[in-house]
Specification:
The complex is a heterodimer of chains A (118) and B (109).
Chain A: E1 4-7, E2 10-13, E3 19-25, E4 32-38, E5 45-51, E6 57-58, E7 67-73, E8 76-81, E9 90-97, E10 108-109, E11 113-117
Parallel strand pairs in A: 2-11
Antiparallel strand pairs in A: 1-3, 3-8, 4-5, 4-9, 5-6, 7-8, 9-10, 9-11
Chain B: E1 4-5, E2 11-14, E3 19-25, E4 32-38, E5 45-50, E6 54-58, E7 61-66, E8 71-76, E9 85-92, E10 97-99, E11 103-108
Parallel strand pairs in B: 2-11
Antiparallel strand pairs in B: 1-3, 3-8, 4-5, 4-9, 6-7, 7-8, 9-10, 9-11
Classes of the chains: A mainly beta (118), B mainly beta (109).
Protein backbone atom coordinates (compact mmCIF):
# COMPACT_ATOMS: atom_id res chain seq x y z
CA UNK A 1 0.00 0.00 0.00
CA UNK A 2 0.83 3.74 0.00
CA UNK A 3 2.28 3.92 -3.50
CA UNK A 4 3.17 7.30 -4.96
CA UNK A 5 3.92 7.60 -8.65
CA UNK A 6 5.96 10.49 -10.01
CA UNK A 7 6.56 11.29 -13.68
CA UNK A 8 8.69 11.91 -15.55
CA UNK A 9 11.71 10.36 -13.86
CA UNK A 10 14.17 12.40 -15.87
CA UNK A 11 13.94 15.55 -17.94
CA UNK A 12 16.64 17.20 -20.01
CA UNK A 13 15.63 20.41 -21.74
CA UNK A 14 16.82 23.77 -22.94
CA UNK A 15 16.92 26.90 -20.84
CA UNK A 16 13.62 28.80 -20.96
CA UNK A 17 11.45 25.70 -21.21
CA UNK A 18 8.64 25.05 -18.75
CA UNK A 19 8.59 21.58 -17.23
CA UNK A 20 5.61 19.87 -15.62
CA UNK A 21 6.02 17.09 -13.06
CA UNK A 22 3.12 14.92 -11.94
CA UNK A 23 2.69 13.20 -8.60
CA UNK A 24 -0.07 10.65 -8.06
CA UNK A 25 -1.11 8.66 -5.03
CA UNK A 26 -2.19 5.32 -6.49
CA UNK A 27 -3.88 3.52 -3.62
CA UNK A 28 -4.84 6.18 -1.10
CA UNK A 29 -6.29 9.66 -0.99
CA UNK A 30 -3.62 12.25 -0.37
CA UNK A 31 -5.08 15.18 1.49
CA UNK A 32 -1.69 16.82 1.54
CA UNK A 33 1.17 16.63 -0.91
CA UNK A 34 4.63 18.04 -0.54
CA UNK A 35 7.30 19.05 -3.02
CA UNK A 36 10.97 18.81 -2.15
CA UNK A 37 14.19 19.64 -3.93
CA UNK A 38 17.50 17.98 -3.26
CA UNK A 39 20.89 19.05 -4.56
CA UNK A 40 23.77 16.51 -4.72
CA UNK A 41 25.00 15.40 -1.31
CA UNK A 42 22.59 17.75 0.46
CA UNK A 43 19.49 17.14 2.53
CA UNK A 44 15.90 17.38 1.38
CA UNK A 45 14.60 20.92 1.14
CA UNK A 46 10.85 21.44 1.40
CA UNK A 47 9.62 23.77 -1.32
CA UNK A 48 5.88 23.82 -0.75
CA UNK A 49 2.92 22.10 0.83
CA UNK A 50 -0.34 21.69 -1.03
CA UNK A 51 -3.76 20.65 0.15
CA UNK A 52 -6.40 19.46 -2.25
CA UNK A 53 -8.52 22.31 -3.55
CA UNK A 54 -6.54 25.13 -1.99
CA UNK A 55 -3.49 27.22 -2.80
CA UNK A 56 -0.08 25.82 -1.98
CA UNK A 57 1.96 27.15 0.92
CA UNK A 58 5.48 27.96 -0.18
CA UNK A 59 8.56 27.91 2.01
CA UNK A 60 10.57 31.07 2.45
CA UNK A 61 12.77 31.78 -0.54
CA UNK A 62 10.77 29.67 -2.99
CA UNK A 63 9.28 31.71 -5.83
CA UNK A 64 5.61 30.85 -6.21
CA UNK A 65 5.47 32.32 -9.72
CA UNK A 66 8.33 30.14 -10.84
CA UNK A 67 7.22 26.90 -9.20
CA UNK A 68 3.52 26.55 -9.90
CA UNK A 69 1.73 23.90 -7.88
CA UNK A 70 -1.72 22.53 -8.57
CA UNK A 71 -3.49 19.99 -6.36
CA UNK A 72 -6.77 19.56 -8.17
CA UNK A 73 -7.76 16.18 -6.77
CA UNK A 74 -7.03 13.91 -3.84
CA UNK A 75 -4.74 11.80 -5.98
CA UNK A 76 -2.89 14.26 -8.19
CA UNK A 77 -0.57 17.21 -7.67
CA UNK A 78 1.57 18.87 -10.31
CA UNK A 79 4.65 21.06 -10.11
CA UNK A 80 5.47 23.25 -13.09
CA UNK A 81 8.90 24.81 -13.26
CA UNK A 82 8.34 27.84 -15.46
CA UNK A 83 11.07 29.22 -17.72
CA UNK A 84 13.63 26.86 -16.24
CA UNK A 85 17.28 27.86 -16.09
CA UNK A 86 20.43 25.82 -15.37
CA UNK A 87 20.31 26.77 -11.68
CA UNK A 88 16.94 24.99 -11.45
CA UNK A 89 18.63 21.69 -12.27
CA UNK A 90 18.04 19.43 -9.29
CA UNK A 91 16.30 16.32 -8.01
CA UNK A 92 12.62 17.11 -7.37
CA UNK A 93 10.70 14.73 -5.14
CA UNK A 94 7.04 14.71 -4.21
CA UNK A 95 5.46 13.05 -1.23
CA UNK A 96 1.88 12.36 -0.28
CA UNK A 97 0.19 12.10 3.07
CA UNK A 98 -3.22 10.72 3.87
CA UNK A 99 -5.14 10.95 7.12
CA UNK A 100 -7.41 13.95 6.46
CA UNK A 101 -4.94 16.61 7.46
CA UNK A 102 -3.24 14.65 10.23
CA UNK A 103 0.38 15.75 9.99
CA UNK A 104 1.42 12.80 12.13
CA UNK A 105 0.76 10.36 9.31
CA UNK A 106 3.83 9.20 7.35
CA UNK A 107 4.74 10.86 4.09
CA UNK A 108 5.22 8.49 1.19
CA UNK A 109 7.61 9.57 -1.51
CA UNK A 110 7.54 9.31 -5.28
CA UNK A 111 10.64 8.15 -7.13
CA UNK A 112 11.72 11.69 -7.92
CA UNK A 113 12.39 13.64 -11.10
CA UNK A 114 15.91 14.51 -12.11
CA UNK A 115 15.75 17.80 -13.97
CA UNK A 116 18.68 18.95 -16.08
CA UNK A 117 18.49 22.33 -17.81
CA UNK A 118 21.04 22.90 -20.53
CA UNK B 1 13.30 26.86 14.76
CA UNK B 2 12.66 23.14 14.95
CA UNK B 3 15.82 21.13 14.57
CA UNK B 4 16.59 17.49 13.98
CA UNK B 5 20.21 16.52 14.45
CA UNK B 6 22.00 13.47 13.10
CA UNK B 7 25.64 12.56 12.84
CA UNK B 8 26.47 12.70 9.15
CA UNK B 9 28.80 9.69 9.37
CA UNK B 10 29.77 7.61 7.61
CA UNK B 11 29.01 4.92 10.14
CA UNK B 12 30.93 1.82 9.10
CA UNK B 13 29.94 -1.62 10.37
CA UNK B 14 30.88 -5.12 9.22
CA UNK B 15 28.29 -7.41 7.72
CA UNK B 16 26.25 -9.16 10.38
CA UNK B 17 26.83 -6.50 13.04
CA UNK B 18 24.25 -4.22 14.65
CA UNK B 19 24.14 -0.70 13.26
CA UNK B 20 22.91 2.00 15.63
CA UNK B 21 21.70 5.28 14.18
CA UNK B 22 20.84 8.18 16.45
CA UNK B 23 18.78 11.35 16.21
CA UNK B 24 17.93 14.19 18.56
CA UNK B 25 15.22 16.80 18.13
CA UNK B 26 14.56 20.19 19.64
CA UNK B 27 10.76 20.48 19.71
CA UNK B 28 9.30 18.90 22.87
CA UNK B 29 5.86 19.01 21.27
CA UNK B 30 6.88 16.53 18.57
CA UNK B 31 4.51 13.63 18.31
CA UNK B 32 5.58 11.39 15.45
CA UNK B 33 8.97 10.07 14.50
CA UNK B 34 10.00 8.47 11.24
CA UNK B 35 13.02 6.76 9.77
CA UNK B 36 13.58 6.87 6.02
CA UNK B 37 16.27 5.16 3.97
CA UNK B 38 17.66 6.90 0.90
CA UNK B 39 19.94 5.18 -1.55
CA UNK B 40 22.23 7.40 -3.60
CA UNK B 41 20.29 9.05 -6.43
CA UNK B 42 16.97 7.70 -5.21
CA UNK B 43 14.08 9.13 -3.21
CA UNK B 44 13.52 8.36 0.49
CA UNK B 45 11.73 5.17 1.48
CA UNK B 46 9.83 4.87 4.75
CA UNK B 47 11.29 2.19 7.02
CA UNK B 48 9.57 2.72 10.35
CA UNK B 49 7.56 5.16 12.38
CA UNK B 50 7.04 5.38 16.13
CA UNK B 51 4.69 7.46 18.24
CA UNK B 52 5.14 6.20 21.81
CA UNK B 53 8.07 5.91 24.17
CA UNK B 54 9.84 2.59 24.06
CA UNK B 55 10.82 0.17 21.34
CA UNK B 56 9.09 -0.85 18.14
CA UNK B 57 10.40 -3.80 16.18
CA UNK B 58 9.85 -4.72 12.53
CA UNK B 59 12.00 -7.52 11.21
CA UNK B 60 15.66 -6.54 11.50
CA UNK B 61 14.76 -2.96 12.42
CA UNK B 62 14.02 -1.56 15.87
CA UNK B 63 13.06 2.05 16.50
CA UNK B 64 13.57 3.41 19.99
CA UNK B 65 11.99 6.60 21.32
CA UNK B 66 12.75 8.51 24.49
CA UNK B 67 10.68 11.69 24.60
CA UNK B 68 12.14 12.85 27.92
CA UNK B 69 15.60 12.88 26.36
CA UNK B 70 14.27 13.99 22.95
CA UNK B 71 16.08 11.11 21.37
CA UNK B 72 15.13 8.55 18.76
CA UNK B 73 17.26 5.78 17.37
CA UNK B 74 17.19 3.04 14.76
CA UNK B 75 18.89 -0.30 15.26
CA UNK B 76 19.57 -2.55 12.31
CA UNK B 77 20.40 -6.12 13.28
CA UNK B 78 22.38 -8.48 11.07
CA UNK B 79 23.44 -5.59 8.84
CA UNK B 80 23.79 -6.39 5.15
CA UNK B 81 25.74 -4.59 2.42
CA UNK B 82 22.36 -3.75 0.87
CA UNK B 83 21.61 -1.68 3.99
CA UNK B 84 24.33 0.77 2.92
CA UNK B 85 22.46 4.03 2.40
CA UNK B 86 21.71 7.35 4.06
CA UNK B 87 19.19 7.13 6.87
CA UNK B 88 17.00 10.16 7.47
CA UNK B 89 15.33 10.87 10.77
CA UNK B 90 12.13 12.92 10.51
CA UNK B 91 10.04 14.46 13.25
CA UNK B 92 6.49 15.79 13.11
CA UNK B 93 4.46 17.91 15.50
CA UNK B 94 1.43 19.94 14.51
CA UNK B 95 2.66 21.01 11.12
CA UNK B 96 5.14 19.76 8.56
CA UNK B 97 7.78 17.11 8.85
CA UNK B 98 11.30 18.22 9.76
CA UNK B 99 14.11 16.08 8.38
CA UNK B 100 17.58 15.62 9.72
CA UNK B 101 20.45 15.75 7.24
CA UNK B 102 20.90 12.01 7.43
CA UNK B 103 23.53 9.51 8.52
CA UNK B 104 25.41 7.55 5.89
CA UNK B 105 25.73 3.87 6.77
CA UNK B 106 28.34 1.67 5.13
CA UNK B 107 28.14 -2.08 5.67
CA UNK B 108 31.25 -3.89 4.55
CA UNK B 109 31.14 -7.54 3.39
Amino acid sequence: GAVVSQHPSRVICKSGTSVKIECRSLDFQATTMFWYRQFPKQSLMLMATSNEGSKATYEQGVEKDKFLINHASLTLSTLTVTSAHPEDSSFYICSAQGGAGNSNQPQHFGDGTRLSIL
Amino acid sequence: QKEVEQNSGPLSVPEGAIASLNCTYSDRGSQSFFWYRQYSGKSPELIMFIYSNGDKEDGRFTAQLNKASQYVSLLIRDSQPSDSATYLCAVSGYSTLTFGKGTMLLVSP
